[in-house]
Design brief:
single chain; about 140 residues; 5 helices
Length: about 140
């Protein structure tokens, strides 16, 4: 009896076994305010440290994505209340003069004191700074 050799089909890139599972972070709510500040601090720090220019444009969703991008999570899903809380922190930073707002975006330039604080500190130290800033008023 003859054995027939079957050809194994060559894998197509992006289909079947070669396709990587899509990974995303789902931020649960309610959460502690300090936990949210840790996420915001990690996001701001990553945006500043990995920035190649003089200014970074910030939106709440960009901060949340940047906080988890190093860990391999390119997408972030959260309830609208989480984005509102991130926006509240950005508004407090704007009131203190640490960020500017132009055309719906918050801008953080390298001339801002927040830039040097974010670059030189750990995410925990930056979260403590944000805690003191948002809870004083």
């Amino acid at each position: 009896m003859k054995q027939v050799e079957t050809e194994v089909p060559t894998p197509v890139e992006g289909v079947g076994e070669n396709e990587e599972p899509r990974r995303a972070v789902h931020i649960k709510y309610p959460m502690e305010y300090k936990s949210l500040l840790d996420i915001i601090a990690r996001g701001i720090r990553n945006l500043v440290v990995y920035n190649r220019g003089n200014t970074t444009y910030i939106r709440p969703v960009k901060i949340l994505r940047a906080a988890f991008f190093e860990r391999g999570f390119p997408k972030v899903y959260a309830l609208p209340i989480v984005f509102s809380q991130v926006r509240f922190v950005l508004e407090r930073l704007k009131e203190e003069g640490l960020v500017d707002k132009a055309d719906g975006y918050y801008t953080l330039s390298n001339a801002s004191p927040l830039w040097s604080i974010a670059r030189k500190s750990t995410p925990q130290e930056l979260a403590e700074f944000l805690w003191e800033l948002t809870m004083e008023g």
